[in-house]
Amino acid sequence: MYALIDCNNFYVSCERVFRPALADQPVVVLSNNDGCLISRSDEAKALGLKMGEPYHLVRPTLEQHGVAVFSSNYGLYGDMSRRVMQVLTGFSAQVEVYSIDEAFLNLAGLRYTAPDVRAYALLIRDTVQRHVGIPTCVGVAPTKTLAKLANRLARKQPLTERAVVLTTASECAAALSQTPIQDVWGIGRRYAAKLREYGIETAADLAAQPESWVRRQLGGITGVRLWHELHGHPCLDFDPHALDEDGCLLPAGGRQRRSVVCTRSFGRPQHAAEVLQEAVATFACRAAEKLRQQHLAAHLVTVLLGTDRYKARSGPATVSTTLTLPIATNDTGELLKAAHSALLRLWRPGTVYTRAGVMFCGLEAAGQVQTNLFVTASDQRNRPQLMAAVDTLNQRFGRGRVSYAAAGVASRSAVWKGRSAMRSSLYTTSWEELWQI
Q: What family, per the record (predicted)?
């Protein structure tokens, strides 16, 4: 049996943990740069507010109904997610983090410790609520696809319950008949439209089709696996994942990450070379820190610059260039030099840019990099110790406490920073912004 635990309106729920007065009030959270709605409370949904609606268009409605609005606060959300996942590890030895607000638990082997599966699901839900303050829905079923489907049905239950367990064939059949085909995990909008042309409106209709038909019409072996999952036969792997500090999924054990990326949109369009250099240097420092955390080194450095994608132009909205290093490294100084050189290739005087980013590829294990005949060992002497010392200081005293001057000395007030006029405090990860009662 698998359990899927999904946090309800996760970003809004994180804000409500530290603002209990908002418990029954409509609340929304905005995307980067306060662009559009990315999380809504049930009360905000009842007002007709849609996911992805531009903030500047719905602002009159928000003000009219007194909706509480927050800028996105990913530092807080990432830490709250880590706390939720930590609680879940107490209920199963195998936890697969699917996203920042969802995780699968493998309940195999818990037959004797948790004979009443529904009671166990409610215990999971209550424990997360009590320890972290985040409300969740729990779906339990023989396969991950059915667990996802059960979780979706749990969202329709009263707030005090929101746990659905599918154990028998009749329970699974009833759940399949209640699920529209577009809500089945793995059926996208395009396949849903195609299946409706054949008269398939629900998950039960799809499960009733012959396997050979599904193989022809639903992407071959991928569709067959989905079909078997709907019949209660597990076909999807269970890969334990983890999240990094930014809430991004790390590769499962045994698999190496292929790239490390750090990109951001600017709060205001920028054209000055000095400002762009500071932004790119900040991104390079952060990406280099991630490399060292995962014991990796990179020998390809890509820098990208983007302009307003909606503005009429003759060329592409995003330009990039890649430099190859003579030897893979995770040394911030070496990576900064490469990123700076790449930026000078891209920057054009008078051009207004709205975003920038740095990507490191060609990753190798930090202790097993391919050496170069023309780079002597003395060039790298003491550098690993220096990087380790910098990382230790930043881990102990806060991110960015020790950094390169190229990244700026007042990064919080940098002109290229995105808009976040309504961001809440970093209640759990900053001494200066610690929650006060």
A: Belongs to the DNA polymerase type-Y family.
What's phi and psi for 349, nearest 5 deg?
-55, 140
Mind listing the pLDDT tens digit for each residue in 267-304? 888 888 999 999 999 999 999 999 998 889 999 999 99
Q: Are 391 and 253 in contact (CB under 8 A)?
A: no
CATH of domain 259-407: 3.30.1490.100
Model confidence pTM above 0.85: no
Indicate whether 264 pLDDT > 80.
yes
Which of 38, 13, 10 lies closest to 23 in space, CA to CA? 13
9-73 CATH, one of 3.40.30.10, 3.40.250.10, 3.90.25.10, 3.40.1170.60: 3.40.1170.60
Give the contacts of 404 (CB within 8 A, at least 6 positions apart): 281, 285, 332, 333, 336
The segment(s) of the chain belonging to CATH 3.40.1170.60 are: 9-73
Every domain range in the chain assigned CATH 3.30.70.270: 76-231
Percentage, residues of the chain above pLDDT 90 = 45
Largest CA distance in the chain: 70
CATH of domain 76-231: 3.30.70.270
Name the segment(s) of the chain with CATH classification 3.30.1490.100: 259-407
pLDDT for 32:
84
- Angle, alpha carbons 158-164-167 (nearest 5°): 160
Q: What is the DSSP letter of 247?
A: S
R_g of the chain, CA atoms, integer Å: 24
Reported as type and span, the H/E element at residue 14 is helix 10-18
pLDDT at 97 over 60: yes
H helical segments located in 89-241: 117-132, 144-154, 169-178, 189-197, 203-207, 211-217, 221-230
251 pLDDT more than 60: no
Q: What contacts 405, CB < 8 A, 6 or more positions away?
A: none
